[in-house]
Structures are given as C-alpha cells and as structure tokens.
C-alpha cells in the first residue's frame, strides 16, 4: 500500500471506473443532508464491499471525519468490510423460521459449506449470512440466495439448492 | 373489450412460491388461445393467505384458486376462461366440512377479517395510481386540504387511533404536540423499519398499497406544518423500496406531491432513506439519527421527537400501519373508526399469524378479538394435530400468551396486564414441540446481537442473561439461576435508556412467569420436556421396532450408528451429536428421543 490512491487509479482503469461511478452518485447526493448511509449503500453495490480506500475517499468527498465513516460502516450489519463470495446465502433465523426448524437448516448449510455466518468459502463461491426476518414468515423456514427467496426449506432441500449455484 | 381479470398475488410469500413463473404460463396460455386482449392480468399486493400461495383470483366471478403452479396454471385459462368450467382441483377445501370454497368469501380465513389497513392489498395493482384513486384514493387528501390543521388533528384525536408500531401512544396527541412545538422547519417521518422478526404487515402495505402511506404523510405534513417527509425502510425489503419509489414518482406526476398540491398552495415532498440492518433503528430516536446518516444510537427522552427530532427540529414519526389508517378516518369520520375495536383501543389490528398454525399469513381483525378466534377460527388450529402451547407477541420486546388466556380480548392494555406487549403485531404460535426456555434464549440472543452498546446494562446485562440461559439449556443450570435471571432482568429494565434495553428481558420474564416448571425441569431434572435442547436429549433405538433397514446408519454423518442389514442397530452415545437426522429418516418410529 505504498502507492497512493491516485497513482493506483492511473494504473488500474477498472478501479478508476468504479470510483468514477461513485463520484457521479456523490455529486448527485452531496447536497442532501445526511446522505452518508445512502452513499455507502451505493459504494457497496459498486465495489462489492467497503475497503479502506473507499472509506477514506467518501470521507474526503463528503467532508466528514474518517472516524465517522468507519463508525457508520461498522455499526450496520449490511455493510461488509471484507470481499463477499459470488453468491450470498442468507439463512433466516427470524422467529417464525426459528420455531419451524430454521436452525437445523442453518446447521446443515454451515456443515456443507464449512463456514460460519459472516464468512466466505475459500473458493469464494459462497458467503454465509444469518438474517433476522425477511418478512416471508408464512413460508418459514426461508433461505435467500442472492436475490431469490426459497420457502419451506429442510436441511436436505437446502443442500440440493446450494448445488445449483456455481 | 376486457371480459375477465386475473388477479395474481405478488406478495413476498407468493413470489417465493413461484408467482412469476405462474404468471408467465398464464400469459402464454392466453396468447395461445388468442384471448390475450379479453383477459387482463394484474399483479396485486399481498392477499394475506401466504400458505395458500401462489393465489390467482378470476373476476368478475371472484373464483379463488390456490396453490397454483406451472403445471396446473394453464387449466385456469383452458378450463375456466375458455370453456367456462371452474377448476375444482385448485379450489380451497375447508378441512372439516370438506366443502370447496368458490370465492374468498367462503374461506373462514377471510370471512372473519375486517380490512381497513389492508383495504387495497391484494385488490389493486400497487403500481397503478389510477386504481388507488378509483378506490377513493387521495380523496382524504382533498378533504384535508379544505379543513384547518386543527380540525384534522381533532378528527385523528377523536378517533382514538393509537400508534401501531408497538407502544400504542395516541396518534392525535403526537400530531398536536408536533404542530404546537416551536421550531422550523418541521419534518414528517414514517417508520418502515419493521424489525420485529415474525411481523411483515408494514412490508405488505408498502408493497401492496404504497399510496395509502404517501397520502397520509402529506395529510400529516399539512396538519403539523411540514414540507418534507422521510420514508425510512429497511434494506431487507428491496421490493417495498422499489414500489414506494415508483409510487412517489407517480404521486408527483399527478400533483399529490411537490409544489402547490391540488392548488392549495401547500408544498410537500417525500425522500426515501434506506436502513442498513440495525434492529435498534426501529426505536424512534435511533431511527432519526440513522436518517441523519449517523450510527443509530438512541437518545434520552425528553426531549421527544415532537420537540427536537431530525436535526433538532420538531418531527412527527409514525409507523406504516398507523399512517395507513389515516385516510379512511378522514373520509368516514372518527365515529366510524370507533365502530369496531374496544373503547380504549379502537379500530383494527393487522397480525402476522405465523409459526405452528395451519393457515399462516396476514390477518386484520378488530381490536379485542380473542386469541382463540385468531388461532382456531382464522388460523385453522395447530398443524399436524399438535397442541397449542402459547402465542408469542411483541417479538424480542414481548412475551407469551398462554392457553389460559385464549378467550381474553386482545388489545393494547389487556396484553400489557399479562406481561407482554402488542408490539407491531407479530403473532408467533407455538405448540407442544417448542421449548419455552429455548424460545426465550432465542430472543435474548437476538437482543444481544442487536444491542447498540450505548448502555452498559443492556450491552453487558443481556449477555450475562444469555450465558445463564445457555447454561440452563446445556444442562448446567444452577438452582439459583431463575432468581438470578429475574434480578438481572429488572436491573436491565430499570437502567437502560431506550425501548430495546427496557424490554429485552421480557421474553425471559414472561416465560418464567408462565412456564417456571419448564425452567425447573431443565435445571433440576436436566430434562427438556419439549425435547428441543440438544444437550438434554438422548437418542436411542427401540429394539422392538428396529427392522434393520440401515437407513439411519447411512444417514448418520458421524457414523455413530452401527448394525448389519436386518439386524437391530445401536447408537454409540459417545459419537452421537444429537443432530436428529436418524429420528427424521426412520420410517418405523424406532428412534427414541428422551
């Protein structure tokens, strides 16, 4: 990390493109009061996670202390400081899912992928998350993979399901 | 000419059950029969009966088809629409009388409901502002703009509407306090951070009838003197965000938002703020910090948001369901609103009926409805012929209602008397297979994760309580643990700053109150009566029933089961991880769980 961000951007057009995209959003939102959380949402969409570079950059652009940005990013579960896998598996352990056996589904996913909530598999195929209610309680237990929700899960069904994601 | 309309439920649960592919099949089949111009397909918001999804309703008859899938969806077109024959196999069959229901009016799940908040959910296309207007939408706004702010507030106050987010504070008093507060500008905020796990009514309103919330926010803005509104939605609800954003755009286009609304000279607009996954942000002061782009930590009250809210300015903050009640109150009057419900809790309440009940889903009933009506009449009783044990209300801030109180009318005050709260309306039904100690531990684990960390009693106290609960479930409970839990609970309640900490011990206190014998069984007899707590269980094979089919041995991931084909199998207790997969797979009920 000896090079500063500007030099790295000059060397890496891909990275430059991502920061340019973030810039457009910040220009649009900077005048709104309290836009930091919205900006971080957008940044995570662009970069997939929130590394130091992005935090420092947003702090500079919005003219807020780095500590404030760091404080916000670490407070909310939605923001990730580490890169995520190609697919995010979110097992719901809201009450309805829990009382209908969500934890047996979660245990099986953990065992199958060999990772715990918040971790990413070695091959970067999956990131495992625990969520507290996605509001599909009528079909508990529920698993969300990327943007698709699957209801009435069982430990066996979830393994078959995981195999469909490369 | 449109001769038929097909309403497809596009609520969260039905989408999960395959609504999109069902719709594709319907579109395809209509085209194949060349009747695509005669039949209109409308995707609506949640129809409530999540367990029956995907649901398709054919109008004008109102024929209610349930559990439609890609294989049988074509029948609706080819039989019903082309040949005029009802598809009997897709109708709902009433389990006791075995009668087939033609319309939703024949299904007990629906007939006992009174839909006010959910008046448009599942009835209109949420993306169509015209359909909302056709159902008296924005009529209340027109009426309000001809009233004085004081008249509006008086109507809301007279209606007796209480905040549906959980605490049940008078909505009218809140509006008045914000109007009377000095300071400008003022703000209107909608709390759409439905964090209570097990509740999804706000999601359904935002997805199924977004304009009802927009209309109410504009009315609130006019009543208290605000020009800006913030809609705070949790990030877990992307579809709600998408539909609300779309609805805002349409409302602007039609002049219900923006400058000089309906030529009244009143300006108002709404901005969406997206949460980022923090349960504490459902607490109003924490939510306001989050809108400001900060960490969502709560602050001490007073000052209340009505005096010093967003950026220190007077702010009115109400929940989604509360707002959804406003327009009908202004159209029909306060007396109409009071015509259902109890005297101190008038109106209806939407419950998310989930857990071990037959018919899960969203139900709206008059306040004062009994738990028995909800669970047995509307919910169809407990699944798999099991016994009702308790209903959990109020999520991590609430407690349980037991079988002894099945006939108690439920409203804000009665539930409080027995140590729980109404909360946002999550009603999780538990049966004999649920361990109350385990359920209380589950909620406590939730608050441990979600405590923002500002107050020590909440941050550290809930963690200590959790350790004790864990110990009890692991069979290491001590005789003094119940007393220790109660003591700790009361300190946390008394010394935490916000609602999260003050209510975090409730699930434990409430289950100790009603199920102390279950706690004692864990602690003294080292037994879990519901056979849930792993460490207190032993799996063994009943030699009289085992036929030696080897299914369990093949299923066991840790190879704890041995035995030859057609010989009795044995479980090695030292290897057994008590995962229960042998119990699940055995077709001869030969596995004993004790």
Automatic annotation (TrEMBL), chain B:
Keywords: 4Fe-4S, Iron, Iron-sulfur, Metal-binding
Matching SMART domains: NADH_4Fe-4S
Gene3D superfamilies linked to this entry: 3.10.20.600, 3.30.70.20, 6.10.250.1450, Glutaredoxin (3.40.30.10), NADH-ubiquinone oxidoreductase 51kDa subunit (3.40.50.11540), NADH-ubiquinone oxidoreductase 51kDa subunit, iron-sulphur binding domain (1.20.1440.230)
PROSITE patterns: 4FE4S_FER_2 (PS51379), COMPLEX1_51K_2 (PS00645)
Recorded superkingdom: Bacteria
Residues passing through the membrane, by range: none
Domain 4Fe-4S ferredoxin-type: residue ranges: 537-566, 567-594
MF term (GO), any: 4 iron, 4 sulfur cluster binding
Family recorded in the similarity comment: Belongs to the complex I 51 kDa subunit family.
Protein's UniProt name: NADH-quinone oxidoreductase subunit NuoF
Organism classification: Bacteria, Pseudomonadati, Caldisericota/Cryosericota group, Candidatus Cryosericota, Candidatus Cryosericia
